[in-house]
Design a protein that fits this description.
The protein has 13 helices and seven strands. The protein is mostly helical and 286 residues long. It has two domains: 101 residues, no CATH class; 159 residues, no CATH class. It binds zinc ion.
Length: 286
């Protein structure tokens, strides 16, 4: 099990010369360390690890998607109550049409999805556990074509395929709750019922840091790559994906920074990573 000593050891280890506890921007290193500890690449201590069949990644998961989905549901319901959805039927059909196509590309068309198109200028989109997808009118207006829109939506499905919400929640619990994470892991292996109670006891905190925080850089890059895979399979022009990030970067130089950038940082680097990936996969040559 992951005991307090190990968490404290993790706190002391430095990365890029900065103490972990003082540097939220380098949470990735803590994530890597904890995953390494828990998944046995550092010390085999805990059996909360699983291989993601879609990405091949070894993931540290204290919860499944279902448990996270229950926590996210009230946030989603509130959001839908508070935010108007577009009345422009053409726009709604455009988003849903692209959504259906990219979902087929992702082999997830058979799942239940709740896709809402919110009528605000926000240049943003998100996915919440439980297959809840929010797309804001602002980001649809930034896109020059359906290929670019499919890039945004494919990216969001990529977060689902990568099980990023459950992984982020698990790592936050392990790093911030420490001992409790150990007991949750034991509960998981011994009785699923008690495990559920432990998670429920975390309540609002879970919602705050487990569901609504931005994803890590690694999650974002993986979602980008998966999104491009889905675009390719769905017949969209993958070259429009880096083009969209170029547009984001241009817009961020203007007066108003797109919200998508605050939750999805580094447009320039991500544009280049996408170009490298697309070339390496042979989808196109840019
Ligand atoms: Zn993202």
């Amino acid at each position: 099990m992951l005991d307090k000593t190990m968490i404290e050891t993790a706190e002391r280890i430095e990365f890029d010369g900065a103490a972990l506890k003082d540097a939220p921007a380098i949470k990735m290193s803590r994530r890597g360390l904890i995953t390494g500890l828990a998944c046995g690449t550092v010390i085999p201590i805990m059996s909360a690890c699983t291989t993601n069949p879609e990405t091949g990644a070894n993931q540290f998961l204290l919860v499944g998607d279902d448990q996270i989905a229950t926590m996210a549901l009230s946030a989603w319901t509130d959001l839908k109550k508070q935010t108007p959805q577009v009345s422009d039927e053409r726009l709604r059909r455009r988003v849903l049409g692209v959504w259906n196509k990219i979902a087929i590309g992702a082999n997830r068309a058979g799942q239940d999805w709740d896709v809402a198109v919110f009528d605000t200028d926000d240049v943003n989109a998100f996915v919440m556990p439980g297959n809840k997808v929010g797309v804001y009118r602002g980001i649809t207006e930034l896109t020059e074509n359906d290929d670019q829109l499919s890039s945004v939506l494919g990216h969001e499905i990529g977060h689902v395929a990568g099980r990023h919400a459950a992984e982020r929640f698990s790592l936050q619990v392990a790093s911030q709750v420490g001992l409790a994470a150990g007991s949750i892991a034991i509960a998981q292996s011994e009785t699923g019922r008690r495990y559920g109670n432990e998670i429920a006891a975390l309540g609002g905190a879970a919602l705050q840091f487990g569901v609504l925080l931005p994803y890590s850089r690694q999650h974002e890059l993986q979602a980008d790559r998966l999104g491009v895979d889905y675009m390719h399979r769905a017949g969209y022009d993958v070259r429009q994906s880096p083009r969209l990030w170029g547009l984001m970067a241009e817009k961020s130089g203007g007066r108003r920074v797109p919200e998508f950038l605050s939750t999805h940082p580094d447009p320039g680097r991500r544009r280049q990573e996408l170009i490298n990936y697309i070339n390496a996969r042979g989808y196109a040559f840019i």
